[in-house]
Amino acid sequence: MTGGTARLAVDIGGTFTDVVLETPAGLTTTKVLTTPQAPEQGVMRGVTRVLAEAKTEPGAVRILIHGTTLATNALIERKGAKTAFLTTEGFRDILEMGFEKRFAHYDLTATRPDPLVPRPLRFTVPERKSAAGETIVPLDEGAVRQAAAAMREAGVEAVAVGFLHAYAHGAHERTAGAILTEELPDASVCLSSEVCPEMREYERFSTTTANAYVRPLMAGYLERLRRLLDEAGFACPLYLMMSGGGLTTLDQAARFPIRLVESGPAGGAILAADLARARNLDSVLSYDMGGTTAKICLIQDGSPDRSRSFEVARVYRDMKGSGLPLRIPVIEMVEIGAGGGSIARIDAMGRITVGPDSAGSEPGPVAYGRGGIEPTVTDANLVLGKLDADRFAGGQIALDRAGAEQALAQQIGTPLNLQDFWPAAGVAELVEENMANAARVHAIERGKEPSEYTMIAFGGAAPLHAARLAEKLGMTTVVVPPGAGVGSAIGFLRAPVSYQVVRSYRTTLEEAELGQVNALVENMTAEARAVVTAGVGDAPHIEDRRLELRYLGQGHELAVPLPSRQLEQSDLTAIRAEFEALYERVYGLTMPDVAVECVSWSVTVATLPEASDTLPPVDKATSPVAGGSRQIYDPGAGGLTDAALYWRFDLAPGTTLDGPAVIAEDETSTVVPTGFAATVDAGLAIVMTRTGQEDAA
What we know:
By secondary structure, the protein is an alpha+beta fold. The chain folds into five domains: 6-75 and 219-257, ATPase, nucleotide binding domain (Nucleotidyltransferase, domain 5, 2-Layer Sandwich); 80-213, Dna Topoisomerase Vi A Subunit, Chain: A, domain 2 (3-Layer(aba) Sandwich); 263-338 and 430-492, ATPase, nucleotide binding domain (Nucleotidyltransferase, domain 5, 2-Layer Sandwich); 342-426, no CATH class; 498-607, Dna Ligase, domain 1, CATH 3.30.1490. Helices cover 31% and strands 27% of the residues. The protein is built from 16 helices and 35 strands. Strands 13, 14, 15, 20, 23, 24, 31, 34 and 35 form a nine-stranded mixed beta sheet that branches. It has a six-stranded mixed beta sheet with strand order 3-2-1-4-11-12, with helices on both faces. The chain has a four-stranded parallel beta sheet with strand order 6-5-9-10, with helices on both faces. A hairpin with a 6-residue loop joins strand 26 and strand 27 (558-562). It is globular, with a radius of gyration of 26 Å. The mean pLDDT is 89.
């Protein structure tokens, strides 16, 4: 790292690119419109702006942390590279067969997403390794070259290679990869044994093809961004935020961009977890709403829920099973197409629908005046008085209220015979109900009750809707942190540099060979350490080792921790006891006479997280003086009502006010409706508390 004192974070969203500069003097933040055709241009525009505002030179920046939705959007919009798939003879259609089950049993019209690789670009070659690593059919290298010739003729830009049992025995894949690289020097070649060395062929192949599909796009973008940063005088390292909540190096991100699919939302979850620890909040619902999507994550005891599987690009009613499965470390959350740019329409049944598609930054909502013609959630919020037309995005965009009103009236109001502000109110109510439903399902699937949680709301649009969403979920407290409009980017600055390595190695605990197991885990640890130390040198770090186990013959696993040392025979007994205790908590029974099978081993190496200081109480309460008022739509009042206006940076710790009110800042506004009171805590967060118990249905 360089010797500078500043840190820079950049989050590319579908509508806005958020930039945060942290110096000893504090945070400087900005939002600029994302430039979809050349995202690096928007990044550099935002970076230049915050440096100028903070009077900081590029050479003073010691680290730049970056998160992006580019990989996610490429998968959702199918705008990745032309990709081929090479697999073992007989497995050509595994990407289309999937799990061989219906995700919606009683819906005859339910459809699955098309595979990323169409059938004409799926090739097979004779080869076969057994699960034990024995060569049953040698790799036919001539067939690989023939397949490469067909790929060349088809203009393939990327190739995914996935052979049977390559998760444990990857020799054939490595040989095939070398041949493909020789025959197709301009194509990107990804091996499943490197991208996802875990058992279960469909998920492994799906993850590998997705990585190949987005790698040319991401590698090209990262190369262009690094070049522009170098030309601008930045000598600092560039880290990428991963879906699992850690940072990785530029080289690793370019090799495995699939690990970045949820990088922006992961930063938001890290911010929410940090805020929860500082405020001693045991149960938190993180609510992040930007211009394109809304993300909801549960945080327990200061730690977000995590998983090693994820589904992207769901195509059917946001239903589990209707997307592309990925096996990557990820912070577990639900993401729906509900953002400020989400488009509102009337469907065939005469109902208002919102999203999942977004107007994005080009052309953007009608109010942006950039050519958008379809009304969006931002247009509705403007008409409802929740946004200041002259100070939106720090005054960078002057909003056209008349245009927003006209679009809502013509496309929503006229078909439904709604007048005045009611078309906008219908759009806002619908998007809030969509988010409430997603939050309820996400919580209930995990055995949780949303009303027992505290909401932490951030993102450019979340503070506008947070109180109403809390009402619908029966929640009593909402925390809106400072810098809420760029919350995910701030979260990047709290993330550790980390890397996770996973390997599948099946054996029962009773038959485990300790020498082989310890060698495997030590090799994984060395690999993870190498990635981390490549960026931070010998900085202090922690290691987390885990083992996924199941009773022999079962299909799903539970993870238990492993000691950060070589395993001894006595550890195997302790591991079984811990697994059975966890199994009993989850399923209510144990099977002591059944062997326990080890399936996957994982090692995570991470730098030490920053300490979260507990906030002191505020001694003195004060009442602020409003800077004016304007009419806003307030569901609690049943229509339009006068709301007091405040500028957030005028509110000191201890400030208390009652709704209806609007607290404005450069990147967002917090709406405090009727039935809520707001207080500024010692950390300058706005804490909204329900004072009334009106029916929110």
